[in-house]
Amino acid sequence: MSTRCLASLSVAVLLSAAGCAPDEEELRHGYVKLEFLRGDSVDSNPYVGTTQIIATMQYLECLSGYYAENMNERADGPDGAAVFGTREEGGEGWRDRLCEVDLPMPIDCEVVSISQQLDVGTADTLSVVYNVMGDIEGRQLAIGPFPNPETAACMAGELPEVRVSQAGMKGKAGDTDLWRTETFTPTEAVVGQGAPIRIYAAPFGS
Length: 206
What we know:
Elements: H1 3-17, H2 22-26, E1 29-38, E2 52-59, H3 61-69, H4 80-84, H5 94-97, E3 108-117, E4 125-133, E5 140-147, H6 149-152, E6 161-173, E7 176-185, E8 188-190, E9 197-203
Parallel strand pairs: 1-9
Antiparallel strand pairs: 1-5, 2-4, 2-6, 3-4, 6-7, 6-8, 7-9
């Protein structure tokens, strides 16, 4: 076996021992988990019939500052396009990756779009539109991409955190709004943390 092959094998063994695949080692971005439950005021499953979920998260101070200082990394920037787009664009490809994340109870999904709202005089946000199939109640989605702690390089005492935005989450069946966020907990989440933000939904208009 050649020296090059032995070196490659050694790297693969080390990554395997650490519990990481080679491409996971290279990722500069991560995600936050969302778990969908029924609200306290709801007796029946509000998610029945949902074909699309629109989820919006607010960047907190560290991540807002990151995109203010790294404009090329934004979704519409020359470097960010490959992060927020598909793998075919040559980057991390989170439009493909989000619905492939290994979650305990994943929702069967496909990402339609990922967009940012920055520098508009209101909160900086990230919105993801998912087409979904099957059961939703008690199941999870990954939302992102968000710069991970190493990429964000927050100032001392800060973390790369997000929270559910005022727009919250909503579910649709075609053009019809089915449900909305009633409450959620915890208020904030750190990128890459294990525990999900739990979304408690109620029928739209209730």
